[in-house]
Design goal:
flat; about 100 residues; mainly alpha
């Protein structure tokens, strides 16, 4: 595993932080697409297709506004506070996703 970045400058840095194993971090799960592709869903095809359609629709896609004023506000935070905010977002998103998976 690569080193955990102290400062998050990219999506790759954020992913490495989310994947870091630590006592207070939620676990980060990855989908095993090869295993999924081997599954026979014939018996539950209707439910499976409905679930996939719901994922494709993604009703939360535009839930948060990330316009220019939001970007400017984040960039103007003092460096320590900005880093804390980014750490909070990473852990919150990871926890939300993990909870959804479970």
């Amino acid at each position: 595993m690569s080193a955990i970045p102290q400062v998050v400058d990219s999506a790759a840095d954020a992913t490495r932080r989310a994947e870091a194993d630590a006592l207070l971090n939620p676990r980060f799960y990855r989908t095993d697409y090869a295993a999924l592709n081997k599954m026979d869903v014939t018996a539950v095809r209707a439910e499976w297709d409905q679930l996939l359609a719901e994922f494709r629709n993604d009703v939360n896609r535009n839930h948060f506004e990330r316009d220019a004023s939001f970007q400017a506000e984040i960039r103007s935070l003092p460096p320590e506070l900005r880093q804390e905010f980014i750490d909070f977002l990473i852990s919150s998103v990871t926890a939300e996703f993990s909870g959804c998976v479970l």
